[in-house]
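Record 1 of the preview.
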Amino acid sequence: MLRSCAARLRTLGSRRTRVPPPGGGPRGARRSFASEEVIDKDHALPNPSWSTDLRFLFDQFMKKCEEGSWKRLPSYKRNSTQKFQDFKTHYVDPKLLKEEQMPGAQLFTRSFEDGLGFEYVMFCNDVENRVVCFFQGGPHLQGMPGFTHGGAIAAIIDATVGTCAFRARGIVMTANLNINYKRPIPLRSVVVINSQLDKVEGRKVFVSCDVRSVKEETLYSEATGLFITLDPNKKLT
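->
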């Protein structure tokens, strides 16, 4: 029985999928900037490094996804060529962001090998303007011996509240992130990051979150974030 479960986890962890568009539907095979076909791995699926706690939370929310109230968000190391071109066309001065600068670029929180850095999965509830992240910090995120580095915690908090702001208002960038660290997080432990949209004032998007233990009995951190919705008429320079 245990062997069959382990085999199933290895199958899920190695599964490769095509990158979906923002709406979550199917899309043709991605291509790199060298125009070669790339089928990227969805890293928001279980792999053998996931602990029992992380897999338990994943299974719980997958059931909520089946009920229709929540949706799992896929996560890839690289942006598709089309997504890069769209962002460059609408939001960035062409002189600032050049295609030849991008080969090898990866999402920071997905740039570690499985189990060594950021292991996480996010689920969103667009009706309630909420995003929940289940995060397991690997040994390469160490700060104080045996504990997760505060900068790594800040990175996953920023990714979570930023995703919440994005789901509510579209393309955003972080303007301010304020974190109160309450307790250190042990390496390889799993935490739950609950984020929610607080308010919107014009292009300003206010989001907050807390970071708690699996059973939500221990509060590790609290944070608030201010994000600015990008204006395609005012390109980044």
